[in-house]
Write a structure and sequence with these properties.
heterodimer, A: 384 residues, alpha/beta, Rossmann fold, 2 domains, eight-stranded mixed beta sheet, five-stranded mixed beta sheet, B: seven-stranded mixed beta sheet, six-stranded mixed beta sheet, 15 helices
Chain lengths: 384, 438
């Protein structure tokens, strides 16, 4: 390693620093292993920037307070683990329906229910996508190390404000708690260039239309409650003014809009790291802590003279279909290691089935749910 | 004063059933707002779910219509983020049931929101089911033979939990506009438990009318009027007061380290420190990693300990490498520090994977033990428990020559408070002596 400034840091600190760099000024959370370090950091740090951080009486109140604060214009974040995500579920729907810019950190742990509180898992991948009623899309980003925790936390705030929807920073016990060496120069100094939420200037009247859009994919401007305009927020099916409606045209327009605003801008969200090797017929697709094993496995395989491509997915949702489809070109075997019983594997199977190559690539899942990390050796065996 | 805001109502007619008291209460709220002449931009009406949840749509103020039982959480978030807002929650007895914990917490915090409970003893929107305030014996669609539960005394419950302005009254109270106005002006948490009539369900199913509503309150021994009124610090302002001196203090930032020690280490070294709670294994592993970083190496540290942190195993895994480390797990340790039976048991699989090329540093009192690894006993007799890990790590560092000892000393000075760092540095001065050859 060249002599330059470095640090030895864990993911929880990187997430808190990313939040501060993004201008986060409201945090509410409820204690839960392994997400509590983030709560502690935010409780300690936010007062220093004039923000508010509070321990809610439960998970429901924590996300509820974040939603309320966000609609007054605060940059809000909460953090929890799987059991807390279950309790967030209904309010995630509210944040989707009311179009709330909100960052939700999910530090995954193992298993259903209480499961393994101090054990790593990646079981919430499909849960964050489908974690509330209705089936509407969300955005989820997934870091593999502390530096990416920092960058992707900032990116989560940007996307939450840009898209007015909940953005999940999907991480896990190992990424958050493991200390790693990070080169300071690698941090993106994005704090200065961070976009402000699209807040409408005072127009002198109260003709503000809180959910006003001209086309389905347009994202309505947010005017904070307590700001220059009278505004309305609702979790019920509503018209542009925020009043309840059952008018089929209005209802369809709203529900289609909630999906269209994300669908139409997949390119803005899509984020992967790809290292594709000319002539490779095997592709390893991974994310989060498991990507670190996958990268090592690919390095070893290449040292053994094998041709292997790999793709690390940062934007898990929506699925980066362009990047994955490009990577599938010429591939016969896709290896998807994950610390669950095969979740993102389903997305790869879907894309492999519509691949143009013939024969269609096989998708091989490498799974582990014993609380241990997937080792590079396990992935190597699947690479063959 | 000339009233600038003649009404806070918009043009929409109320949607409520004929005879429903909601209409009456919302008119009283409008009267209260007119009396106070608040800037509507600084007022937000937060509604829950149920018929009362429709209320925000009839006012020319800001509006927030959320989920069932959670209105208080959104209201609290808004007040915390913007203490200038006048936050008025309208919820029913149903919301007080499902969101009871929020009611208690808001009262305990004395957060400056005003809650109007439109209490009509049943769920009017979903078919007249019983609620937490249905009187004993009350007939509803889910208590067809009479309610067996006791009703929740909302007003006295929040009063007992610290709400600083609490009133119980009925929708027919002529003083209601004044009481609502006083609640809105009140700095802390205020709640009006307003008993009223559900014309669709509770009234036809039970003999209840405007007159017997008062009798019901008397029968249940729940007096009306001001239940509690006191001055107590409002939470959002108290939070700002308490944290005022924190503003501008340096925030969590990268603790940059400049590698300036040299090491000849040219391959990854995987180290398991298998100890017990109290031996400071985890913080020692961070020091070991920091020293490595100061020597130009990459490092990772992962750890494991039970949720009951002061007992049982405490194990850290540290990898040091001249190259970037991706996989942070260790299947086959190069160096294994055996410091306590708890850790040895937890890490038994890694212990079993030790080979002739591995080195085991182990407290002498944990010997004999069967292993293929080269075994270095540690005589830790005089080392205190809290220094066990750092002394053993320093001894290992001496023996295995991973990186210079001054790098570890610098790590200690960087990471620990000065008075502790001095002690730790002294503790490791003679650490090489714990290694007993032969």
């Amino acid at each position: 390693m060249r002599s330059e400034f470095v640090e030895f840091v864990d993911g929880s600190q990187a997430i808190a620093r990313g939040a501060l760099a993004a201008g986060c000024n409201f945090f509410a959370g409820y204690p839960i292993t392994p997400a509590s370090p983030i709560l502690h950091h935010m409780i300690r740090e936010l007062p220093k920037v004039g923000g508010v951080a509070i321990q809610g009486e439960d998970e429901i109140s924590s996300i509820g307070m974040c939603i309320g604060a966000a609609m007054t214009g605060a940059k809000s974040m909460t953090a929890t683990s799987g059991p807390g995500m279950s309790l967030y579920s209904e309010n995630i729907g509210l944040a989707i329906m009311g179009e709330v810019p909100l960052v939700i950190v999910d530090v995954m742990r193992l298993g259903p229910a209480t499961g393994g509180a101090t054990t790593v898992g990646q079981g919430d991948v499909q849960f964050v996508r489908w974690g509330t009623s209705g089936g509407y899309p969300i955005i989820a980003l997934c870091p593999t190390n502390p530096r990416e925790c920092y960058d992707l936390t900032i990116q989560s705030f940007k996307l939450a404000e840009r898209f007015r929807c909940p953005v999940f920073l999907l991480t896990d016990r190992e990424v958050v708690a493991t200390m790693s060496t990070i080169k300071i120069a690698e941090y993106q100094e994005t704090a200065q260039s961070h976009d402000q939420a699209p807040i409408v200037e005072k127009s002198g009247d109260d003709a503000f239309v809180p959910y006003g859009i001209n086309s389905p994919a347009e994202i309505p401007h947010l005017s904070p409650i307590g700001g220059p305009h009278l505004t309305r927020f609702t979790g019920s099916t509503h018209d542009e003014l925020g009043f309840l409606t059952k008018d089929p045209d209005n209802v369809a327009r709203l529900n289609q809009h909630l999906a269209a605003k994300i669908e139409a801008r997949r390119d803005e969200i899509e984020s992967v790291f790809s290292d594709l090797q000319q002539g490779a017929t095997t592709l390893v697709v991974s994310y989060g802590i498991t990507a670190r094993s996958a990268i090592e496995a690919v390095h070893i395989a290449r040292q053994q003279g094998k041709k292997v491509s790999y793709l690390v997915v940062y934007s898990l949702w929506p699925v980066p279909e362009n990047a994955i489809t490009r990577a599938l070109n010429g591939i016969e075997r896709v290896v998807v290691p994950e610390l669950n019983l095969g979740q993102y594997c389903l997305e790869l199977k879907r894309l492999a089935n519509s691949a143009s190559s013939s024969p269609r690539p096989d998708v091989i899942g490498v799974h582990r749910v014993d609380g241990e990390l997937i080792s590079p050796q396990q992935i190597l065996e699947a690479i063959r | 004063m000339k009233a600038e805001y003649v009404t806070y109502r918009n043009e929409s007619p109320y949607p409520f059933c004929p005879g429903c008291s909601h209409t009456l209460i919302l008119d009283r709220l409008n009267a209260a707002l007119g009396k106070l002449q608040l800037d509507p931009h600084k007022v937000v009406i937060v509604t829950d779910i149920g018929c009362s949840g429709l209320s925000d749509q009839y006012f020319k103020t800001n509006a927030f219509h959320g989920l069932h039982g959670r209105a208080i959480t959104y209201a609290s978030g808004m007040k915390l983020a913007n203490p200038e807002l006048k936050v008025i929650v309208i919820m029913g007895d149903g919301g007080c049931g499902i969101g009871g914990h929020h009611l208690l917490s808001a009262a305990r915090r004395n957060i400056g929101i005003s809650v109007l409970v439109l209490n009509n003893f049943n769920y009017g929107m979903t078919g007249g089911q019983h609620s937490v305030t249905t009187p004993h014996g009350g007939i509803t669609s889910t208590t067809r033979l009479g309610n067996l539960e006791r009703p929740l005394d909302i007003a006295r419950t929040v009063a007992a939990n610290g709400a600083s302005y609490v009133v119980r009254t009925t929708a027919f109270d002529k003083e209601l506009p004044n009481l609502i106005a006083e609640a809105i002006l009140h700095e802390g948490f205020s709640l009006l438990d307003i008993w009223e009539l559900c014309a669709a369900y509770y009234v036809p199913n039970n003999t209840l009318n405007r007159r017997t509503l008062e009798d019901l309150i008397t029968r249940l021994e729940m007096r009306t009027g001001v239940i509690q009124k006191e001055e107590r610090d409002e939470y959002a302002r108290a939070y700002r007061k308490q944290t005022a001196l924190q503003i501008g203090k340096p925030t969590l930032r990268s603790k940059s380290l400049e590698p300036h020690f040299k090491t000849g280490l040219d391959h990854p070294i995987r180290i398991v420190i298998a100890g017990a709670a109290g031996q400071k294994v985890v913080s020692t592993a961070a020091l070991l990693g920091t020293g490595a970083v100061l020597s130009g190496l990459y490092a990772t540290r992962r750890d494991d300990y039970p949720v009951t942190v002061m007992t049982g195993h405490s194990v850290s895994e540290v990898i040091l490498s001249p190259e970037e480390i991706f996989y942070t797990g260790i299947e086959q340790p190069d160096l294994f520090l055996g410091l306590a039976p708890e850790g040895m048991k937890f890490s038994r699989r890694q212990f079993a994977a030790l080979t002739e090329r591995s080195t085991l540093y182990i407290r002498r009192d944990l010997l004999p033990i069967e292993t293929r690894a080269r075994t270095i006993p540690l005589d830790m007799g005089r080392v205190s428990k809290k220094e066990a890990a750092i002394v053993a790590v320093a001894a290992m560092l001496h023996h295995a020559d991973l990186y210079p000892m001054p790098a570890l000393q610098e790590a200690i000075r960087l990471k620990q408070r000065p008075e502790i760092a001095g002690e730790t540095v002294r503790a490791i001065e003679n650490s090489s002596k714990v290694i007993a050859f032969g």
